[in-house]
Amino acid sequence: MVTIEQKQSISGVRTYLPIEDYGIIGDLHTVALVGKNGSIDWYCVPAFDAPSVFGALLDTEKGGYFQIAPHDTSGESRKQLYLPDTNILVTRFLTESGVGEVTDFMPIQQATSPIYQHGIVRAVHVVNGSLSFEMTCRPAFNYARDSHTVEPVEHGVVFRSPTSCSGSSPPSLCRLTARGECARRSPWARMNGPILCCAAPKPPR
User: Fold this and answer.
1) Residue 144: what are its φ and ψ, rounded to 5°?
2) Structurally, how many domains does the chain consist of?
3) pLDDT computed for residue 21 by the predictor
4) Over pLDDT 90: what percentage of the chain?
5) Can you tell me the distance from the alpha carbon of 34 to that of 32, in angstroms, rounded to the nearest whole number?
6) Using CA atoms, how far apart are residues 100 and 93, in angstroms rounded to an integer?
7) SS (H, E, C) the chain
8) CATH assignment of the domain containing 65
9) Which of 28, 97, 132, 178 keeps 20 to 30 A from 6, CA to CA?
């Protein structure tokens, strides 16, 4: 039986996942939904009811997403679990080439931190075998109504819209595209180091 995730991988066209195929992470102010395909498809900042940064849950083509997943999907199955007594979500990919995991969580802010700044930490780990991962970060601010620019900086890339700013610190060799996204395929068995995505509306004056 071919799953929705496998259809997406075969066709190259993003499809809608059933809502039960999402895990949730949060930081007491807002949350993000992470699919079994390794894609963050819903994320609003700085609060639950704020405009979206990633909204593919509503529109797979325009809504925006941040996906990390193996390139080789032959014989693939996927599952999600939480580390015991935490809100740290592990998405596990089991393929014919190996077993890999993407771990996601949102750090709880210190009391002295600005409440409008929020972040997501994503870490890639190969448990067994050898896997090549693909990463695409394509924000779509304010329910895809706001245009944005993307520019490389010393430690990653910055996406800017008229009302919001989002930064990602991906591995090196990230390719910027005309669609305003950051994309990369890892040529090694694993991506080195965690990937941090921070987003915030423009600070109040």
Assistant:
1) 70, 15
2) 1
3) 97
4) 41
5) 6
6) 5
7) CCCHHHHHHHHCCCCCCCHHHEEEEECCCCEEEEECCCEEEEEECCCCCCCEEECCCCCCCCCCEEEEEECCCCCCEEEEEECCCCCCEEEEEECCCEEEEEEEECCCCCCCCCCCCEEEEEEEEEEEECCCEEEEEECCHHHHCCCCEEEEECCEEEEECCCEEEEECCCCCCEECCCCCEEEECCCCCCCCCEEEEEEECCCC
8) 2.70.98.10
9) 178
CB 120 within 8 A of CB 43: yes
Mean pLDDT of the region 189-204: 62
Q: Retrieve residue 43's tokens.
A: 């994320």
Q: Range of 46's domain? A: 4-201
pLDDT tens-digit series, residues 48-83:
999 999 999 999 999 999 999 998 777 789 999 999
Whole-prediction pTM: 0.82
Beta bridge partners of 175: 183
Provide mean pLDDT across the span 138-143.
Answer: 91
Half-sphere exposure of 146 (CA within 13 A, CB side): 20
Burial of 172 (0-12, 13-18, 19+ CB in 10 A): exposed
Measure the CA–CA gap between 204 and 196, rounded to whole angstroms: 23
Paired residues of 150 in beta bridges: 159
Give the residue among 45, 46, 131, 143 at the shortest CA–CA distance from 91: 131
